[in-house]
Amino acid sequence: MPESLSFGIDPITAHAWNKDRTKLAISPNSPEVHIYHFQRGEWKLEEILKEHDLKVTGIDWAPNTNRIVTCSADRNAYVWTQSEEKKWKPTLVLLRINRAATCVRWSPLENKFAVGSGARLISVCYFEKENDWWVSKHIKKPIRSTVTCLDWHPNDVLLAAGSTDFKVRVFSAYIKEIEDRPVSTSWGSKMPLGLMMAEFSNSTNGAGGWVHSVNFSSSGDRIAWVGHDSSISIADASKGMAVSVIRTDFLPFLACLWVSENRLIAAGHGCCPMLFEVNETGKVQFAGKLDASLKKETSGVSAMKKFQSLDRQARTETNDTSLGTLHQNAITSVCLHTGNKANATKFSTAGVDGLLAIWDFSNLESAMRGLKFN
Amino acid sequence: MIIPVLSYKYYQRSLQYKKNIKIQRFQLEYKSYNKMDVSRRKFRQEQYSSINYHHSEYERRGSFVAACSAFRKIDVDQYNEDNYKEDECGESQSPPSIEALKTVLRNAPISSRNQMVKDAALNVVMQVLLSMKSSQIEEAVNALDRDHLDILMKYIYRGFETPSEGSSGQLLAWHEKVHAVAGVGCIVRVLTDKKRV
């Protein structure tokens, strides 16, 4: 049974955990960011960060340096650092964009972060010590439309971006002021800033949809993305950029996350996290729903429910208005909770119903028979 | 108060009378038309349908004449009893097989920019879908693969847009069967796909 925390009725647009998972930053569909702290067995609201003017669209928490970066529809991003009195202080980041920012991600070494925006560009921002502020460099070249999602490669240089022009692109975000030359990877050897290393189209045969989420696997060789045409795709750089797509029967997914080198979780409008597996030949297959157990519990007390509905609403039919899944509305984001991308044991999902659920693989294993967890 | 009402009634009656006269005149002309030989008929047809004639009629009568001359453009020979041919296509054929459906979906002109080609293909697909028996639908849907199911769903929705006699009911049966096999994802792809069928 996944652990679930309710944060009211407002949708949760973004969430991020701190390093030891005792603190949680969420944005309840407003310009504020709420920080919750797990103390004495319950989650308490610790602080509200109020600096943005418009809705906060992305939050990311750097685990080692303990900094939070938030980006918002007001074309700004702030980096929050915790002072000695445990108060969070914002520092403005000059993104130089003229449209809303849509997503933000810290790089694996936390020396820079990337912001995707509706201005058809990605801002890669790093801290300049001489002037004591965050400056940005733009990646513009082949991007034709809003960038909706970002993810960093483990080597801290490559960046994958999904966009509403139905394409997923891998760029180099190498900033020579702050880091050394990167070694060559399966994506390419020369990596100047802004060079597009690979481009994948989400629209084979003309069927396409916006790319909602993109994710690098732990080795960095594989990249997964989900699109609005209910498809989930994998590209493998070590196999010559081979792409494997499945067009699923479910509602479109909004977020995806690798939990091992061969398995990934996708969740979205179907309100239920799904597990997908990549087999040896590189083909992606549906492995199972991670929320199947709950449906059985709701069908038990039907007689009671019938009389209840007759009493309250004067109707004899008992069609349930609640879904059989834990989340009652779309899941907007999926975050790693325990473990890393090579071997995750827990992950968290947040949705439009204001619920944040933490899913544990060891519990799910017993609920899903016939699946081998290696 | 009564007098205007009465006069209106008479006015209406007179309109009806005029209409009847027009119909009678047409029927008379038609009968005499039939007795002429073909070449003379065609010549007369062209004469009557020319613009000059209309103008002179208009001036002579001083009333609304133009509309009722449309009958002059009809080719009456095609309605001649001797020329009547039995309807060739349709009932004599057997209902289309699953192979026909597969062929028509495989050759669907999705990438074409020509709207006429797409409309023609739509008509063919509609004929196939509407003439297949309800018992065959499930078998046909199970025989198709995912891509073809997506294309079929697109045609079903396109068929809903232009309903004909009893078509929507049949299409709904198709929709239910395709949905049972391909799920909601199929419908989502109909909505998100830029390339319309």
Layout: helices, strands, pairs:
The complex is a heterodimer of chains A (about 375) and B (about 200).
Chain A lengths: L2 E4 L7 E4 L5 E5 L5 E7 L2 E8 L6 E7 L4 E6 L4 E6 L5 E6 L7 E6 L5 E6 L4 E7 L4 E7 L7 E6 L5 E6 L3 E6 L23 E6 L9 E6 L5 E6 L3 E6 L5 E6 L5 E6 L4 E6 L5 E5 L5 E6 L4 H5 L3 H12 L17 E10 L2 E9 L3 E6 H7 L7
Antiparallel strand pairs in A: 1-28, 2-3, 3-4, 4-5, 6-7, 7-8, 8-9, 10-11, 11-12, 12-13, 14-15, 15-16, 16-17, 18-19, 19-20, 20-21, 22-23, 23-24, 24-25, 26-27, 27-28
Chain B lengths: L1 H34 L2 H12 L1 H11 L36 H9 L8 H17 L2 H10 L2 H16 L5 H26 L5
Return the CATH architecture of the largest domain in chain B.
Answer: Alpha Horseshoe
Structural class of chain B: mainly alpha
Shape of chain B: elongated
**Helix-strand string of chain B:** HHHHHHHH
Oligomer: heterodimer
Dominant shape of chain A: globular
Total beta strands of chain B: 0
Mean pLDDT over the full residue set of chain A: 88
CATH 2nd-level architecture of chain A: 7 Propeller
Protein name (chain B): Actin-related protein 2/3 complex subunit 5
GO biological process, one term (chain B): regulation of actin filament polymerization
Subcellular location (chain B): Cytoplasm, Cytoskeleton
Pfam families (chain B): P16-Arc
